[in-house]
Amino acid sequence: MSKLTVEHLTRRFGAQTAVNDVSFEVQDGEFLTLLGPSGCGKTTMLSAIAGLDAPTSGRILIDGEPIFDAAQRCNLPPERRQVGMVFQSYALWPHMKVRDNVAFPLRMRGIAAAEREEKIRWALGLVEMEPYIDRYPHELSGGQQQRVALARAVVYGPRLMLLDEPLSNLDAKLRLRARGWLKELQEKLRITTIYVTHDQTEALVLSDRIAVMQGGRIEQLASPVELYEQPQSPFIADFVGHSNLLDGIVQEAEARRAKIRFGQHLLAVEKILKPNKGSAAAIAVRPENVILHQGQPNGSGGGNYIPGKILQRDFLGARYLYLVETSGGIVRAEVSERFEKGAVTLELPAHACVAFARDAAA
Ligand SMILES: Nc1ncnc2c1ncn2[C@@H]1O[C@H](COP(=O)(O)OP(=O)(O)O)[C@@H](O)[C@H]1O
Ligand SMILES: [Mg+2]
Q1: Backbone torsions φ then ψ of 58, nearest 5 degrees
Q2: H-helix or E-strand containing 233?
Q3: Residue ranges of the ABC transporter domain (predicted)?
């Protein structure tokens, strides 16, 4: 039963602020992901929670008890925080067999041999690595080593699990498998988990909630569906699922809809965040929501139709990605039909267009 609270956490390295006044909570049993581009402060945040690094200011609490409090000079050492960790580099001890690697945290806590053996088998069983108990790390694949690292992290029953890009050293196929058993493990154990990744697909698949970070701050903290459907900034719209960000000028604005001038055309958008009449706007629309028509569309209208010209077609496997030139700029469209280069009509469904004030996009 462990809830994590982070309050006004800041970490400065000289003139640089790696984590900037961040507050959030992770509920008991929740899987929360810190998602963001390289350098946004994810590892710094995780190190602070683990006790590997002391932040400049703020507090961190587990179940209401401070484990770090800059003002009170409270800073519990890592081994007293009861936190399990797995990092990008597997960090198994190369000279120890699987059994001894997993036994290590139990030995450190003075757990007797019989109970130790039982716990080791339980933890290795969870990640389906029991048959490898007598192997050395170099006799295992990368994915297997990472599973042993996970077993070692959960074996003594930590209050929190911290995972820092644990799958990023695996090849694409293995990553997919590894994602599966991480999810299974979480469903079995329900340990409060903080997962760090720069991979949005991983975040969407695994998480109960996602905190998207940029420049040391959390830009939005929400469920995967909410992030995808209701991004609060152009950065989120583009980072979670990729979006076209089209430059326009607000022509008419109401509470939930607006008309925006884009090149020579007026686009209706249904979801609208913040822009005012006359101001510059960014229209976010996902490439997979853009529809392409050869010649004149026979649609019933109501959509936003704009003429364009296909500049480039990339084969993606199941779909094609098109770069389409319009009077307002280039629009990306991802569709399954094959079109030849040349004139097309683009349809940007109003319900799939979100408009932001352009200053928010800076
Ligand atoms: N020990 C350190 N000394 C100086 N700068 C650091 C240190 N650790 C991290 N930083 C800086 O803080 C920022 C955040 O880093 P980090 O938390 O590792 O990002 P992420 O894990 O999101 O890629 C980066 O700009 C990085 O260069
Ligand atoms: Mg990192």
Answers
A1: 110, -175
A2: none
A3: 4-240
Give the pLDDT of residue 281: 93
| Domain residue limits at 334 | 242-361
Residue with tokens 């101001």: 279
- Find the CATH number of the domain harbouring 305: 2.40.50.140
Ligand 1 proximity of 38 Cβ (cutoff 6 Å)? yes
Q: Are residues 147 and 173 in the same domain?
A: yes
CB of 19 shorter than 6 A to ligand 1: no
pLDDT of residue 362: 45
Residue to mutate, 19, 44, 53, 56, ligand 1, most ligand atoms under 8 Å from C-beta: 44
Report how far residue 226's alpha carbon sits from residue 17's, in angstroms, rounded to the nearest whole number: 29
pLDDT at 79: 87
Q: Which two tokens stand for residue 127?
A: 């990640």
pLDDT at 170: 81
Determine if ligand 1 sits within 6 Å of the CB of residue 326: no
Position 88 scores a pLDDT of: 77
Note the pLDDT of residue 27: 97
Residue with CA nearest ligand 1 atom 5? 13
Are 208 and 79 in the same domain?
Answer: yes
**Ligand 1 pocket, residue 41 CB under 6 Å:** yes
Q: Which residues of the chain have pLDDT under 70?
A: 1, 90, 298-302, 359-362
